[in-house]
């Protein structure tokens, strides 16, 4: 039982951190500016973004606030703050076949994640690229915060975003 509590707490922290990291990165720059990492920061937002959980649009998430930032060999996707309700944060590699390093979703107040922590994997994510459009699909896992002792919950997700 104690092992489950530690795992649940760790997953919740990873999901929250992914959302916060993504949000802090999107607010640091709007437009292309010089960067010490790779020469430029590319920020995209709005148009054509979709965030679905269990096949349904993630209600309470304003997709117009979702931004995509390419900088320093990473792609960060994040939503704006929505009063602590629903949220999104993704960090993935910026390469021909991107890999998700961390993903956090807040769904109905529950922090769900895709991450690797201490040799244990939580959830799964695959990325498909079509031009400048990224489609991330998989399953995020976390705790039911209304009933943390009930064990883990998981939700299938699909995120589609354009990142120029």
UniProtKB/TrEMBL annotation:
CC terms in the record's Gene Ontology section: membrane
Ranges of biased composition (kind: Polar residues): 30-44
Highest taxon above the source species: Bacteria
Record keywords, A-Z: Cell membrane, Lipoprotein, Membrane, Palmitate, Signal
Signal peptide: 1-17
Pfam family, any one: Myco_19_kDa
InterPro entries: LpqH
Region Disordered, residue ranges: 27-51
Name of the protein: Lipoprotein LpqH
Species this chain originates from: Mycolicibacterium fluoranthenivorans
Organism lineage string: Bacteria, Bacillati, Actinomycetota, Actinomycetes, Mycobacteriales
């Amino acid at each position: 039982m104690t092992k489950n509590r530690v795992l649940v707490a760790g997953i919740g922290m990873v999901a929250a951190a992914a959302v916060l990291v993504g949000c802090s990165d999107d607010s640091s720059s709007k437009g292309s500016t010089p960067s010490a990492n790779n020469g430029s920061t590319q920020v995209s937002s709005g148009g054509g973004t979709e965030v679905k959980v269990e096949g349904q649009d993630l209600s309470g998430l304003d997709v117009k606030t979702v931004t995509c930032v390419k900088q320093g060999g990473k792609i960060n996707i994040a939503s704006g703050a929505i009063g602590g309700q629903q949220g999104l944060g993704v960090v993935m590699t910026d390469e021909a076949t991107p890999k998700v390093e961390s993903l956090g979703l807040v769904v109905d107040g529950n922090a769900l994640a895709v991450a690797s922590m201490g040799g244990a994997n939580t959830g799964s994510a695959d990325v498909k690229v079509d031009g400048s459009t990224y489609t991330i699909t998989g399953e995020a896992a976390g705790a039911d915060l209304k009933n943390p002792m009930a064990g883990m919950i998981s939700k299938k997700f699909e995120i589609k975003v354009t990142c120029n």
